[in-house]
């Protein structure tokens, strides 16, 4: 399995290098990109980790990059960095699925903490995605009727109640139930419920939002 990578996307070379130094000291692998276009073209988006993305850059902005990531199905969690006064942009970024938004200059400890949170969340999200794919693959072995029976059995209903719901004999349900257990390699209704839950698990975009709005931030500004 590939180790996590923190992508640093910013058009200020000195800032990128300072961030990379701090994160590397904390044990992270990093890669620097001088623009959003460079990141979208050259990054291995399948590698786990996160993106530290400047919201104001020459060329494609951070928000435009985020929009393009969403369009391409790039699910890496995004930590936006910006100058004073971009709260309205922060709200827009969070609505589009950004995980966090911090103002420059970001203390080293806070940057490391935020990245560690997003890297951990990404690892958990990818594991859940693998579990979801495995569960769906198993459930695909069932016939439409077996799937229907499995969903009712998972609620805890006894065979007779399931049979009444579907208008079939109790013996018929017993046969279906036996086939379901065999196909899914499971032994109880509780395990079926767990498998169905895994197959239908929702992907959550925002693992932890730590945006802090200070009184002096309200009213905007254009510095970055």
From TrEMBL:
Residues in HTH luxR-type domain copies: 135-200
Transmembrane segments: none
Residues found modified as 4-aspartylphosphate: 54
Domain Response regulatory: 5-119
InterPro entries in the cross-refs: CheY-like_superfamily, Sig_transdc_resp-reg_C-effctor, Sig_transdc_resp-reg_receiver, Tscrpt_reg_LuxR_C, WalR-like, WH-like_DNA-bd_sf
Coiled coil: none
Source organism, top-level taxon: Bacteria
Pfam families, alphabetized: GerE (PF00196), Response_reg (PF00072)
Keywords linked to the UniProt accession: DNA-binding, Phosphoprotein
Protein name per the record: Response regulator
Source species: Mesosutterella porci
